[in-house]
Amino acid sequence: MKYLSLFLTLVIFACTKTETLTPTDSVSVPDLVSNIVKTEFPDATDGKYEEIEKQKLWEYRFKWKAKDMGLVINNSGIISEYSKFLTNAELPASAKEFIDKNYPGSTVKSVIENLDKNKASDGHKILILTKEGSYITLVFDAKGTLVLLMVLPKDAKEVNTSKDNANKAVMVSEADLPTAIKTAIKTKLGDYKFIKALLLKQDTKKTYTVVVSKDLTVYELVYNEDGTLIKESSSGQKDSSNQIVEIAEKDLPADIKSLLTKEFAGYLYQKGTVYKKDGKIAYYQIIVKHNGKVLNLKFDDKFKLIAKSELGTVIADAATTKVGDEKDLTKEIVTYLATKHKEYKVLKVLIKTQSEGKTFTILISADNMLYEYVMDDKAKTVKVNSTGINDTMISIKEIKVTDLPAKAKEYLDKKYSGYVYQKGTKSVVAEKLVSYQVIIKLGTDLYFVTFDGEGGFLAARKG
């Protein structure tokens, strides 16, 4: 469950029972609406309308091919949801797997299949009651990927799960969103792609949960009817509050490249990191080799050089000390380093020869930390120093699809056959690889998929 919190928003609301229309109830709907409904389902029986928003939005319940059905339509004739009410036995396997993994011991209260315009399956909306007593609505797309999640508070009133009231939280089109909400999203994000919106009607109170995406980030935004933002979350390729991101030489800002060329002519780029705090760049740390030295250069967010230091222990007795490289390390030292660090890069090797043997001073970088080891040829450590990443920060490194564990690639190939890889990252905390996050494209849709450090599936969102 702890990983699920990286990618899912929990939207808290209360739910009250609304009276169902009886066959004798009369609801006035425009001819445009009734004609479209008759065209879509000419052989529907036992049809009843219920007004969701006065003279603007209606829910229509009916029977079709021996199934209980429903749809939501607005006064422009736009149908935002087709629903088929299923039995619990018809719960999709992928949804059951998700529920069992993330909400063990919960009870499925209702299963609704959403249909597309061609009446083919377009996903599911499922209501569950957790063993802790909370009601949760889960919305999945046709691939079984989570699109939206809502949680009721424990003190919420009993939810009526009959076919007459199970669809009280209804999907709406972008056109059905209040102008205040559309303006708020536009102001917040600029241009965006609309994914889904769900209207929860509680007596006279309306709450809108809107899922949108921009670039490579998906946002779940919860608004009151007046456009007041209640809650938000996001996932995908975005800035977290505190993180360190590796940066390649080609991606360095032009001003930093220019200074390096001018002040350190002939330098060899070794490693670069961007330190971010509260989502904003704090500084750049660049490690280069220049004139036989390994230099640690620090630039501020305006690309000004603010600190410079030489890395590695200075050994006074130069007559007995030579500069070595990685190939001079003994098998014992190589084995020791490989045991300590899954991936590392040797930056500098100094070898001091004394009567009692050789002493190696080795400077390496691993997971955005710098380590200086002083040891003998049998890898008996005399001293170790480390500087760099704070344990409260996350190191995020971009990866290629070939860098994914086989287990993760197998999942993507099976679940999203034909996908196109867009971007991926791996997250490391205190030297421990904790997760992979990849962004893939299938058709015109983006999917954000998260795996644990070993490539096991954790969560996915559509964006």
UniProtKB/TrEMBL annotation:
UniProt cross-references to PROSITE patterns, sorted A to Z: PROKAR_LIPOPROTEIN
Residue stretches making up the Putative beta-lactamase-inhibitor-like PepSY-like domain: 27-79, 167-231
Protein name as it appears in the record: Putative beta-lactamase-inhibitor-like PepSY-like domain-containing protein
